[in-house]
Design a protein that fits this description.
It contains no helices and 18 strands. It is mainly β and about 200 residues long. The chain has one domain. Strands 10-9-8-7-6-5-4-3-18-17-16-15-14 form a 13-stranded antiparallel sheet, with no helix packed on it. It is globular.
Amino acid sequence: MSLILGRRQLIAGGVGLLVPGVAAAAPSRLAFQVFRNGTKIGEHQMTFAGTDGNETVSTDVDMVVKVGPVPVYKYKHSAVERWSGGRFVSIDATTNGNGKIQKTSARALPGLVQITGPKGVVKGPADAVPLSHWNQASFGKPLFNQQEAKMLKVVCTKVKPGQWSIRGEAEIDDFYDGSGNWMALKGKLEDGSKMEYRRI
């Protein structure tokens, strides 16, 4: 139930901008409570290691959707994203949606980004990056879905300082503080329900 796209993949990711592709003064950890239609369904956490532009970003998402007391959808997602010299290097992700496990990866190669998933290999543009929300500089580049291992057909628009709109295959708004740190997310899922991230 990720917030990267759609009902099954609206998530995976999170912070700022000084040098293109690099988070500015990123905190060592970001954590969010995740809400669906106002009800808390889980948490999304990210940790940052390394220096600006040479970072390893680890993501862990754990959500459970219930009807009354009965769990009807369980979702877990983990990913390790690497950057070097301000450029995307790689990402490895594992997603468990109600027991269905998907493993995906992407590697920056000369002239392209090779994205590999259960359905095979996709060759993305050389400047493609994962939609993981934390880095505002990514919104000016071709984006791919790290869970589905495919390029995204979206348009990213800077609504105002600290707010970006993502439209097309997704309906997401990301919010950032004055230092460029990811602060919140609001999105609409395929079933019409509303998803919201609140920083903790």
